[in-house]
Amino acid sequence: MRRKVREVMTSPVATAMPGTTLAELAELMLERRVGSVVIVDPDDAERIVGIVTETDFDVSDDPIPFTYFRSPHVFERSIWSETSLEEAYAERRTKPASSIMSTPVLTVSDDVELWEAVTTMLKNEVKHLPVVRDDRLVGVVSRHDLLKCIAEAASAEPSRPPRPAPGDAELFDRIVCGVDGSPGSLESLAQALRLLSDGGRLVVATIRDTGVTAQTGFLAGHASAKLDEDVAAALEAAQEVVGDAPGVETRVIDGRPLNVMLELAASEEADLLSVGPQGHSRAAGLVLGSMTTTLLRDAPCSVLVARKPPWNGGFPQSLVVGFDGSPLSRQALTVASAIARRFDTPLRVLAATGGKPLDEQLLEDVPELEEDGRKPADALVSVSEQADLVVVGGRGLHGVRALGSVSEAIAHGAACSVLVVRRPEREDGE
């Protein structure tokens, strides 16, 4: 997503002058249904001198939100009774905007991208940003506006390209990647971008773990602010990885990370889910131990468990695919071969013969097949030390036979990235 601030800003802006009374400011906010008023120079309506937001109308000793009574609360004492409210009105209604406005004012250019505006807001702990063009006021945006826009990715769902038939796609057409700002998650994003087919779509999900704030009790406000900071940092880090790559869509989603990833993969009809093997942050809660295990078992698509390659240069440079003659291993071979062709990368096809007996006839039509006398997991984990991507077949959502459990052991034990190619659940019975 590469949308600009000018596409979502509110314009014309609710403005007032420094001498405008607080009663008039409150009436303006209620009439325009806005959470802030930009204070401008009396001699130049496009020059910003301050800003007043709803929170500036709180009672200092006994705070009550401005919107609670739908009337201004710029008072220095409690106003619980109707009498005290009327007295406070009489005392404060003529107070000028200049007495409570924030100045100097942080602004944002209308030409910056949304993720930059979100980062600016969260880092500076502000909820409203006047938007300028050549230092002249042209609009205003709020933190809620920008986060909601990123979460929705667009006001309308972009059309999806037709899904290619299994085995026909050169790489992966629809990828979902969870990013929490950790090195492992950023590596998974970089590798997902490499495996995205031309014209494909990559959804980058940064997750605000709602379970964190639920467990912090009276510290929930502080925890929520820290989550916002983590989200901003993750968004900024992800943007550095994807750059100007086409087909990338960034979302901020509230929820429990595991549930969000599974639901997003299903709703997007993803053919690949990309995760890092480890790393934890409050923003996404990506503890990729038990989480990776669950995704490997329950994800409705292939899963990439990404690890940083042992050498510099583009990924991938050395591929290994596990093959036992089964339909699932043939599907893995098809995908691995496509990746090898795309990147002109050497591909080793390995048949481990130390496990269940293999049908030699099923292996005859695979050229340059290497046989290894060890069990499948042991063999593939061992050779992973000389590769940067191991590809294996995986069972459907609940299968546990043959390579099903083996793929999980390899994903956790390999020294390099592991791609578990999974047949969709609807095909398991074929």
In short:
By secondary structure, this protein is α/β, with parallel strands linked by helices. It contains 13 helices and 16 strands.
What does this structure look like?
This protein is an alpha/beta fold. The chain has 3 domains: 5-152, CBS-domain; 172-305, HUPs (Rossmann fold, 3-Layer(aba) Sandwich); 319-427, Rossmann fold (3-Layer(aba) Sandwich), CATH 3.40.50. Helix content is 33%, strand content 22%. It is built from 13 helices and 16 strands. It has helices at residues 22-32, 82-92, 114-124, 143-152, 183-195, 210-214, 220-242, 257-267, 290-298, 327-343, 360-363, 376-383, 403-413, and strands spanning 15-16, 36-41, 44-53, 108-109, 128-133, 136-142, 172-178, 196-209, 248-255, 272-275, 302-305, 319-322, 347-352, 369-372, 389-394, 417-422. The strands form 3 sheets. Strands 9-8-7-10-11-16-15-12-13-14 form a 10-stranded mixed sheet, with helices on both faces. A 3-stranded mixed sheet has the order 1-2-3. Strand 4 (108-109), helix 3 and strand 5 (128-133) form a beta-alpha-beta unit. Helix 5 (183-195) packs parallel to helix 7 (220-242) and helix 12 (376-383) packs parallel to helix 13 (403-413). The two termini are 38 Å apart. Mean pLDDT is 77; it is low at 59-80, 153-169, 213-221, 279-288, 396-404 and 425-430.
